[in-house]
Amino acid sequence: MSDKKELRIAMIGTGLMARTHSNGYNRIRDFFPELKYKPVMKAVCSRTEAKVKAFAEQWGYESYETDWREIIKREDIDAVDICTPNDMHADIAIAAAEAGKMVLCEKPLARSVAEAQPMVDAIEKAGVPNTVFYNYRRIPAVTLIKNIIDSGKLGKIFHYRANFLQDWTISPDLPQGGEALWRLDVDAAGSGVTGDLLAHCIDGAMWLNGPIKDVSAVTETFIKERVHQGTGEKQKVGIDDACIFHCHFENGSLGLFEATRYARGHKALYTLEINGEHASLRWDLHNMNYLEMFDHADDGIVRGWKQILITDGDQPYMDRWWIPGTSIGYEHSFVHQVADFLKSLEEGKPCEPTFKNAMMTQKVCEAVINSANSKSWQDTGL
Amino acid sequence: MSDKKELRIAMIGTGLMARTHSNGYNRIRDFFPELKYKPVMKAVCSRTEAKVKAFAEQWGYESYETDWREIIKREDIDAVDICTPNDMHADIAIAAAEAGKMVLCEKPLARSVAEAQPMVDAIEKAGVPNTVFYNYRRIPAVTLIKNIIDSGKLGKIFHYRANFLQDWTISPDLPQGGEALWRLDVDAAGSGVTGDLLAHCIDGAMWLNGPIKDVSAVTETFIKERVHQGTGEKQKVGIDDACIFHCHFENGSLGLFEATRYARGHKALYTLEINGEHASLRWDLHNMNYLEMFDHADDGIVRGWKQILITDGDQPYMDRWWIPGTSIGYEHSFVHQVADFLKSLEEGKPCEPTFKNAMMTQKVCEAVINSANSKSWQDTGL
Amino acid sequence: MSDKKELRIAMIGTGLMARTHSNGYNRIRDFFPELKYKPVMKAVCSRTEAKVKAFAEQWGYESYETDWREIIKREDIDAVDICTPNDMHADIAIAAAEAGKMVLCEKPLARSVAEAQPMVDAIEKAGVPNTVFYNYRRIPAVTLIKNIIDSGKLGKIFHYRANFLQDWTISPDLPQGGEALWRLDVDAAGSGVTGDLLAHCIDGAMWLNGPIKDVSAVTETFIKERVHQGTGEKQKVGIDDACIFHCHFENGSLGLFEATRYARGHKALYTLEINGEHASLRWDLHNMNYLEMFDHADDGIVRGWKQILITDGDQPYMDRWWIPGTSIGYEHSFVHQVADFLKSLEEGKPCEPTFKNAMMTQKVCEAVINSANSKSWQDTGL
Amino acid sequence: MSDKKELRIAMIGTGLMARTHSNGYNRIRDFFPELKYKPVMKAVCSRTEAKVKAFAEQWGYESYETDWREIIKREDIDAVDICTPNDMHADIAIAAAEAGKMVLCEKPLARSVAEAQPMVDAIEKAGVPNTVFYNYRRIPAVTLIKNIIDSGKLGKIFHYRANFLQDWTISPDLPQGGEALWRLDVDAAGSGVTGDLLAHCIDGAMWLNGPIKDVSAVTETFIKERVHQGTGEKQKVGIDDACIFHCHFENGSLGLFEATRYARGHKALYTLEINGEHASLRWDLHNMNYLEMFDHADDGIVRGWKQILITDGDQPYMDRWWIPGTSIGYEHSFVHQVADFLKSLEEGKPCEPTFKNAMMTQKVCEAVINSANSKSWQDTGL
Questions:
Q1: Listed residues B105, B135, B165: the one ending a domain
Q2: Domain CATH number, residue C357
C-alpha cells in the first residue's frame, strides 16, 4: 500500500450526486486495487453544519466546511468535486482551477454557454486534470455500444434516437425550489429537462455518433405556476417540463430526442437506439445490464434482436465485479468514472468528458432552448 | 340465409391490399354470421389479364375486367374498393361516386390535399356510403385504447408519440417504381414514408387524441438515386425515406412522430404511446395482441406496466374468434373493418374513417411535408 | 380450376375444434391455390338439429346430419374429420376407416391406450390417409425449431422442458360436463390436463427431441367436487387439474413437463425450451410469432437470446401470408395442417402425425397417469 | 460515531463469497448509518499467504492468518464468517460456536444432514447469534414477494416453481476440483447443482410457501469424467450436473424445481413463480429489480402481468439507495443481509435464516438426492 499516491478530495455538496460521487471514491480500494492513486476523503462542504457533519461521518470525510471558499484555500486538497446546484458550478470551478486544483464537476457544466465558457477557459488556462460526470457513458452496456460503433460494425448510420422519460412532477401540488427541488427552479437550474435529462442524451449521442449540427425543438411547461419553497409564494414556473427536438448529425444521420417529467409510468427511462446500415443497437436505463443488438449479418432465417446480458468478465468494467449473470446497478457508473479519472492521472491523459468536451453538450442544449423559443432551426456551432 | 342482402363488390387492384381486403370480405360469412349484408365478390379489375384472372380465381371473384371504367359502368356492382397505387385513387373514387356506387378506399386518400379535395366533394355530393382503410384502428388492442381513453381513465393528456419503423429499402440496389415498388416512386405514391407509414400514425393519433394544430418536421432521402423499373434508368429519388415531426394537439399535449425505412432490425414496427395524468397506454404492431397499461391508481408499491393479452371475449372483436390466450393476426384488422362497414350500412351510420375524416390526415401529412421543405412550423388548418 | 380434385369433407362436431378445422378448409382456396385437392364442405354432423343447421350455414357445409352413422354411410363423403369429445373418437374413427374413408381426428386420439389401439389398427388395416391435429407443430416458429434441430445446429441435447399453463377452472363454482365443459368430465375426456394440454407438449417434444423412455409424474385435483351439468348433482371430479412429470429421452436428455388449469394469470401459455450443446431455442404460444434463440457460436461479447419475429417469406409457411412484420394467429396452424394433408394426398405420403404416430403420445400420457397413480417411475414402452 | 459498538469480524476464505460478504460489511457505514453495530474488519484467513495478504489489503482487513484455528483462538474476534468450500463449514462453525463467537456461514450449511446436525447443535448449545447467507431473500423484489404473500393477497396457493439455470460447465475440457472449481468436486462440495443452486430455490420456496413434505427427483451427470486439478488425473465426476424434482408443500400446493449447469444461454437464471387463487407473482435474477404480478382483482378487460420496477423508497431496502428508476445489483443482497444481521443484534432477535432454519433446506436437498438415487418418492421429515 505504501506505493499508493494519495489524491485528497473535497466534495462540495451533500445531495444525491454528492452521495453517488462519494460512493465512487469509497469503492476504489475494494474494486480497483491496482490503481496508483488512492482517494482520500479529505473534506466535504455544505452550508448547513448539522447536515454536512452528518454527511462527513456517514461517508468518511475527515473534515467539513460550511463555506466552499475555505475548501479552495486549503492546501491539503488536491481535487474539488462539485455537486452543488447548477448555479454555483461556475464560481467554484473557476476558483478551484485558479487555485491549481483538479476539478471534477457534476453535469451540466453550467446554466448557459455564457456561464460555462469562463469555466472552460479557467480550466484550460490552469491546465488541471478535470472531468464532468456524464456518468451514463460508464454503464458497461453503453461503453460496449461505443466499442461496437468504433469497430465499424454498424456501417453508415441513419438514425439516432434517445429519450429520458420521468413522471415525478405531474402533481400540481409539488412545489419548486429549495434544497430538494432546485431542479424545478429556473434560477438555480438554468433549464428544466433540457439541462437535467436531455444533456445526458446529448452527451451520449455525440460521444457515440459525433457532432450535432442543427436542431429544431419544442418545449412545454405543463404546470404554469408552483409554490416556491424559498418564498412560500406561487410563482411562475420558468423551466421546461418537456422538450423534444430533431436534428442533423455531422455524419448525415437524423437525430430524435425527447425528455419529459410528465410521462406517467416511467421513472427514469433513458433509452437510446442507433440504426446503422449493417446493425442496430438499443439500450435503456431501466434494464441497464442489457444491450440489445440486431445484426443483419446473421443468417436471415434466424435474424432478430439479441438481448445481451452484460455481466461477463470480457465486457467493459465487468472483470471488476461478480460472476456471469449477476447484475450491477446505477451507482457503479460513478465508481467507473472515478476509477477512469484516477487511471487518467496515472497515464497523464484527459478523462473524457472533460470540461471542454462537456461544452459541446452545453452548446447543443442552448441551441435547443433557443430553437424552442424562436420556433426555428438553430445551428449548434459545432 | 334468404334474409341476407347482397352487397356486390368490385375490387380495383390485385396487389397486397387487394389481398387483405378480399380476405376481409371472404371471412364475413364464417365470423360475422349475424350481419344483414352479405358481400358478393362480383368483379376484380387490373390491367394485366393473366394476373387479374388468376386473382379472380384465387379469391373467388365471379368476373374480371382490365379497365376500371368498365367496373364503373356495370350495374351489377354496388360498391367499389380501390386498392390501386395512390395516383389512381382520385379518378376512380370520383367516377364511382358519380355513378352512385359506394366507395371503399385504401389509405392514403390521395397524393395531396389538392387531389383529395375533389374526392371528398364527390363523395359528399353523391351521399354514398364510404370508408378509408386505416385498418390499424380495428386491431382489438387499439380499439380498446380508444375505449379506455373515451372513458376518461387517462385524465389530461401530456404526450402522444408514435413511430413506424421499417428497414426494407436500405440497399442502394433496390430499384424504384413499377408494380411492385410504386411506393418508392414519388409520381405514383405522392410521398414516401409520410403517406405510407406516418399517415397510419397520424390517423390513429387524431382518432385517439384529437386534432393536430401545427407541426415542425424534417425529412431525409438517404439514397439519392435508384434505377427506375419503368425506364431502366437511374433516376433521382423523389420520396422521403424518413420523416420526423413534433406537434401540438388541440388538447395541449405534445406529439412526436417518426417513420423510416432505414431502421435496421425493424420490419413493421408501428408503436404508439399516450401518457395521461392518471394512466398511460402503449402498443406496437409486432406484438399486436398485447396492450400495455400503466395505471397510477394501482397500489403504489406494486405499480407497473401491465402486459394485457387481448384475446378474451369481452375485449373488442374477440368474441368472434377463438379462446383466451390464442392470438389473431394482421389480416383480422381488415376483416373487422369490412364487418364494421357492413354493420354501418345496416344502421345507416357512417363507417369511420370516412373520406371526410381521412382528409384530416391528408392535411396533416401535407403540413408535415411543407414544414420539412420550408424548415418552418406549419399550421394544419384543423 | 377444372383440374382440381374434390375432397369431400364431413365434419363431426360443432364445437371449438369444429370451427378451427372448418376454417382450415375454408382458407385453402385463397391461400394455397396451387394445391391439387380442393376441399368441399359436404356435411356436418351434431346431435342437436338447430345447432348443426346453423353451423352448416355459417361455415358453408352443403348438408347436415344428426347421427354420425349417417355420415359413414354416405357415399359422397371422402374424408371424416372428428371433432367430438374424446369418448366418441374411437367408434367414429373405426367406422370411418372400415368404410374406406380418410380420417382426420382432433387430438388426443382417445381416452386410453386400450381405446386407441383398435383405432390405429383399423386405420392401418384400411390403409386410408389419416392425420391427427396436433396443430402446434404447424405454427411457423415451431416448424422452424424442427428445421433448426434437424440441421444439427444444437449439437447434443441436454434439456427439454415444456409447460401448458391455464387458469380457467380456478373457481369452484364452475360445473363439469355437458357440451361446453366435457373436458372437465373424466368419462368424456379420459383425463384432465394430461390429455388436453400435456398431450400437445409431449407430441411436440417427441417430434423435436425423439422418444421419451420413462416418466415420473405427480397429478393433483385441487377442486374435489363440482356440479355435473348432466345430472345437476355435485359429483367427484375425476380429472387431473394439474400434472407435472420429468423423464428421460432416448437421446439422453432430461425432460420436464407441467400442465395446469390453476396457474392464475396464464391463459394458454404453452412454452417450450430446448438446450443443446451449441444453441438453445425457446417459444411460447402467447407470443407465437416469435422464436427465441441463443447461439453459442456468436461472438462472446455480444452473445444473447435473439427475439426472432417469424413473418418473412423464407420462414415456414410465411410465403402464404402477408409482409415482414405482420403477424398471423392461432387459427393459421390449422390451415397449415389442412394444407399439408392435401399436399400429402398429392404426394402419396403420410401426413404427420398420423394415428400411428399419435399413439406414441397416447402411450406417454398413459405412463404419466400410471406413474402419478402408482407414485413410481413408469416405462413408456417406446 | 462514539456511540457505535464494534463488531469485530473474521473472514475465513478469499473466494467469490468472501468478496461479496466483505463488500457487505464495507458498505454498512455509508448506507446503514443508523445501525448501532459497526463492523470492524479484524482478520481474514486463507492457506496461501500471498493471497490472503493481498485480500486483506484490498478489502481493508487489519490482519490475516493462514490457519483458521488461529482465528478461533483470537480474543479480538467477535464473529466468524465462513466462506470456505463446503467441506470445511462444519469444523469451523463448531469450533467458532464453542469458542463463543457469532457464526455467519455461506450456504449450504454442509455437505449432508449428518454433517450439518452437529453444527446446528453446537450453535444452539452455544446460543450465539448466527445466520446463513441465503442472500436472495434480501433482493428487494423477493422480500416484497414475501410481504405480499404474508398479506394474504394470493389466497390459496396452487403452484410454486423455481429453477436455476446455468451453462458454464458444458465443455468437457473444464477440469474439476482445486481452489477455483471445488464446486465440481463432490468431496469438497457434497453435491452439484442441488447444494449449489437448488438450495437457494428451496430456501426461497419454504420461506415463501412453507415446508416441503415429500419429493420425487431425478439427477444427471452429463460429463462422466473430468481431469481433477488436484491429481491432474481424469477422475469420475461425482456431482449432479442437473437436478429436477417435483414435490408437495404442506399447504397442498405442488412444487416444481430444476437446476442445471447445462442450459446453454442462461448464466445465472434463478426464476421463481407462485400461483395463487387471486394473484400470481414471478421473479428472476437476470432482471432482479423487477417483480411481475398478475392480480385477478384488476378490471377483467385490462388484466395482465405487471412489470414492477422495484426502485422506490417505499419498497424493501430501497430507501437506502438512489432514486426511482435507478437499479441496484447482485451485491446489494449481501449488504442487506449484513445490515439485517447487525439489526438483529440490536434487537436481540434471530437473523433468518439461522442455522436451524437452514437445516430444513439441507433436509430437502438430501431427500432430493436420495429420491434421485432410489428412484422413489422421499419424505423430507419436515
A1: B135
A2: 3.30.360.10
Q: What SS3 state is found at A350?
A: coil
pLDDT at C1: 47
Q: What is the pLDDT of residue A1?
A: 47
For residue B307, give the nearest of D144, D305, D309 by CB distance.
D305
Instruction: Name the residue among A85, A106, A21 with its Cα closest to residue A355.
Output: A106
Same domain, D132 and D256: no
Cβ proximity of C116 and C122 under 8 Å: no
How do residues C292-306 score in pLDDT, each as one tens digit?
999 999 999 999 999
CA dihedral D355, D361, D366, D369 (to 10 degrees): -140
Looking at the structure, tell me whether residues D280 and D265 fall in a common domain.
Answer: yes
What are D262-318's pLDDT values in tens digits? 999 999 999 999 999 999 999 999 999 999 999 999 999 999 999 999 999 999 999
Q: Are residues C33 and C130 in the same domain?
A: yes
Q: Residue D300's domain spans which residues? A: 138-379
| B106 and B222 co-located in one domain | no
Q: What's the CATH number where D83 sits? A: 3.40.50.720
How many domains, in total, are found in chain D?
2
Q: What is the pLDDT of residues A117-163, one digit of tens each?
A: 999 999 999 999 999 999 999 999 999 999 999 999 999 999 999 99
Secondary structure (3-state) at D333: helix
Residue listed under C-alpha cell 442552448: A366
Query: Would you list the DSSP string of A224-266?
Result: -EEEBTTT-SEEE--S-SEEEEEEEETTS-EEEEEEES--TT-
The CA distance from B189 to the nearest CA of chain A, in Å, is: 23
Residues C110 and C167 reside in one and the same domain: no
Tell whether C266 is within 8 A of chain B (Cβ): yes
pLDDT band, residue C2 (cuts 50/70/90): low
C124 and C273 housed in the same domain: no
- pTM, two decimal places: 0.97
Which subunits count as partners of chain A given 3+ CB pairs below 8 Å?
B, C, D
Query: Measured between CB atoms, does D30 come within 8 Å of chain A?
Result: yes
- Do A247 and A350 reside in the same domain of the chain? yes
B89, B107, B135 — which closes off a domain?
B135
Name subunits touching B (3+ CB pairs < 8 A).
Answer: A, C, D
Q: Is any Cβ of chain A less than 8 angstroms from the Cβ of C309?
A: yes
Residue with cell 379535395: B117
CA atoms within 13 A on the CB side of C144: 27
Domain identity same for B222 and B246:
yes
pLDDT at C204 over 80: yes
CB-based contact (8 Å) between C315 and chain A? yes
Residue C249 to chain D, least CA–CA distance (Å): 12
Q: Does D366 touch chain C (CB under 8 A)?
A: no
Query: Given a cut of 90, is residue A170 above it in pLDDT?
Result: yes
| Phi/psi at A248 (5° precision) | -105, 130
